[in-house]
Structures are given as C-alpha cells and as structure tokens.
C-alpha cells in the first residue's frame, strides 16, 4: 500500500482539529487488514477516539471483536463518523463528549462504559494537546497547566476510575511520543508530558503486576492526524515527517496494530514496555 502523501501545507485554526476537512484524509485501516478475533468479547475505552490515531485504534479494535467507547472534546461530526466505522464492523460504539481535564468527567465516562457494556477490559489513554513555543519563557502558566492536565493528569484520572473494573488479563495502553526520547525544542511542555507518560507506564506496570493487569505504551513518530494542521504553520506541515529515515509521515493505520498487539494475548508477557512506530528513528528506549 502506498502511504506517501502530499500534506499540501494545510492548516486549521484550532485544536484538536477536524479530520473531516483534512486533504488528504488520514488512512485509518488497510483494506487488507483481517481481524482474527483477538479482542472478541472485550470492551475498550479510548480517549481522543474521534479521529487520528484514536479513531484508527477504535476501528481496529472493532475489527478484532471489541465494543468501543470513545471519549472526545467536542468534535461531534468526527465522532459520529468514527461511530459509523465501528458499527460497520458489527460492534457497538459509545460516544462520550467532555473535558478529560475534569476528574469528575473521567469518572463519569468510565461509569457510562460499565453501564453500557457491563465491563471494561482495555483502557487506552491517548488524547493530547500541544502548543509550539520557540522560547521556554513564552510558555504561560495556563498553557503549562492545560497541557499537563490533558496529557498526563487525565491518564491518572482514567486509570483510577477504571481500575476497580479491570480484571486479570486486562490492559492499559498509554500514548506517549517519539519526542519523549529525542526531545523537541518547540514543544517543551508537550515533550515533558510525554516523558512523564513513559515513567508512568513503567511504574504503573510494576504496581499492577500482582493483579496481572498489563500496562504498556506506544510512542508514535510524526503521524498524519488532525492535530498536525491544527498545531503547525503551513511550512512545517508541508515538511511534516520528511526528516525521518522513511522520508514521510506515518498514517494512523500504521500505528493502530501496535495497540491491537498490546491489548491482546499476543503480548501476554509484555508489561512496562513501549513500541515505536516512528518511521525508522532509533531511540534506544
């Protein structure tokens, strides 16, 4: 399959961005991806599941047999499209809009999943925000608080709410980033949260080992999602991903199988680990 695209230097005016107006649209799942029941009978909650990587994870999970709940901020049209894609796989999709920086909302979201599906087997902490600043002195306290609240505090909130419902063999998967490993001078606060997610994943994995609940992470490189045109100017979007060894941005369809692997029994002896779909960047982590 040809994953090379022309990003056309397009931009969007606000985060987290709208997938429905992207051109070209991100590739969500390969036509030849064949599900084999790896998640049959499971239910999953995915934050940021309306678009991009989250949407791809939702559709792949559904093709593998899981019912899916997706949490998102306010992108209703994108969320409805994701729901349609999940339901086309013959599975249920619960839409839960709200602000994951709010601990009470995170608790209520988990409660709704349990009420709708009767169980929760896979928690995917995926949603994030980023706001480039060339100088650390430009990062306001408000931006710093919002970035940390979205990118790492919410992981704690959802884990705390989900844990009473998770059983032996269930899993938590966290989305970190290649920036946690090689840094990003214009994304200091974002990169810091992604480094925190790596430490959180490793520590939580050890903490939950006795319960036989596995905790792992995925560290994507430059992936073509709505967050990109909603974050960067046209010049950076035009060059996005071309500095990787593979000389192109990745697609959500190339990332989601990592989540399937970590969520299913294929990864039964893996916990505290990070997978790196990043276009060939060597990170030694």
Helix and strand arrangement:
Layout: E1 43-47, H1 52-63, E2 67-72, H2 76-88, E3 93-97, H3 103-117, E4 122-125, H4 141-162, E5 171-175, H5 179-182, H6 188-207, E6 214-218, H7 234-239, H8 252-263, E7 274-275
Parallel strand pairs: 1-2, 1-4, 2-3, 4-5, 5-6, 6-7
Helix pairs in contact: 1-2, 1-8, 3-4, 4-6
Averaging pLDDT over every residue, what do you get? 95
The major pleated sheet works out as:
7 strands, parallel
Assign the CATH class.
Alpha Beta
The structural domain count equals 1
Pfam families: adh_short_C2
Region (Disordered): 1-21
Keywords: Oxidoreductase
Protein name: SDR family oxidoreductase
Description:
Residues 7-16 have a biased composition (Polar residues). Residues 1-21 are annotated as: Disordered. This protein has helices at 52-63, 76-88, 103-117, 141-162, 179-182, 188-207, 234-239, 252-263; strands spanning 43-47, 67-72, 93-97, 122-125, 171-175, 214-218, 274-275. It is an alpha/beta fold and 285 residues long. The chain has one domain: NAD(P)-binding Rossmann-like Domain (Rossmann fold). It has a 7-stranded parallel β-sheet, with helices on both faces. Helix 2 (76-88) links the parallel strand 2 (67-72) and strand 3 (93-97). Helix 1 packs parallel to helix 2, helix 1 packs across helix 8 and helix 3 packs parallel to helix 4 (141-162). It is globular, with a radius of gyration of 17 Å.
